[in-house]
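Repro:
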Amino acid sequence: MASPAPLRGRQVLLAALIGGALGAAVALMLKTVVSNTPAQVSPRTYVIFFVIFCAFGGLAGLTLEAVRQLQERNPDPAYHRKPRTAARRQSPQRPRPRGRSPRVIRLASAGLDCSVGKSAAWLLPLVLLAGCGAGKPTAQPLLIVQTQAIDPQTFTPGIDVVSKLESVTDVLLKPETDGRVVKILASQGERVRQGQHIFVLDNVQPSAQLNASTAEARKDRINAERYIFLNNQGAVSNKDRDAYITQAIQSRDQVKANAATLGYSFVKAPIDGILGDLSSVKLGDFVQKGQSITGVVDNSSLWTRMDVPSTQLGRVAVGQRVLLTSQGTPTVSAEGRVVFISPYFTPATATNPSPPNSLLVKAEFPNLTGKLKTGLVVTNRIITEQKVSLAVPVQAVTMQASQPFVFKLVPIQAILPRLKASTQVPEVQKQKLEKLAAKNPQQPVVVQVAVKLGTLQNNHFPLISGLAAGDRVVVSNTALLRSGMPVNEAAPGTRLAGSTPEG
């Protein structure tokens, strides 16, 4: 059996060179794409990418050509059998062209079937032209950003506490005697006045007793007046006179007692306010003395019972402002004052579910709009102080390793010396900045600045350090920014559309 012919090394080498050229073309195309984006890539990185793509392309071409030649020299008939498809059986046999195929086509189609060799040969020049023709990148547009000035703003640090509203005047309606309800003179939800009759209980017996005592008192009064006259005439003794006078006084007091007893049959409103739910009592029901029937609530003035942690005790004082906000929709707001601070810490018990080591603080709120109701869950903010500080908008702040940063806008001529001295700015970027500064010295550039901020309030942070009044910070597209990047500032109130090319 004859030994297989050796591999044609010249063709293998030529295929590796073609693969390397293809890899170089792809690397050039990627370089063109990257150079037209805001990303900064150093020249060393470009060289590494170029070498990697060339090596992979060359290795792929070498492998394909070597495998093709090995298959061609294998004596197994399975490696040389061509697939027969329905299309080939139906299509007429095309005459084979005379002579051998051009050498360029054979080399370009290394590792491929001859039927696709011509397509690969035409594709190679196009890829090379695409990679080499885009050597000079187009002008990169500058990012357009919105900015905001650092101006003073009033901040009101405080203590936030969640609690329920309670009425300052809230009284339960209870009868003072037993009896059956014979009349209901008011309806639930009705505004009543103090002393207004709400219920009438069965009062036949108290009324009869009052009438009898009234008649008795009238008789005793007449007898007392008669004996006073007779005593003045000397007809009766002083002792008899005093006995009748005493009897008249006792009868008069008995009338008052019976009138009070009859009055208990009329259940009256103890205060001015709104009458509560009356569904528990109906006409004909028997009620007992001291039974809670309903309540009368005056919501014109409300208060909250706030449990303030002991750590915040030194910040709370009587008279401080308290801002109230309801948790429902629509939101209801009100403003009140601290009226009471407990002199002791109330321990948590079954009847007092206050958090341990907390202090009871009460604040009173005038219900001017009438929208606040007893039992409403609200958020209270005790304003402990009021100060004016420079404000940083929350949109401008970015966090890196728990450190807040902002991007400040400065002219390029003011920051160019620092950027040129920085080791973190690539040389390519430094050269671009120098050209831009020569063309427009006032071109805005963003600089990342570390800041120290207070507690967020109304979408602004109080500034402690890091910026000065009048500085402009970027409030849009902050995720796309980096220190030293030139940008264009959008006019206030305009949409971020359009950009100007970088020279």
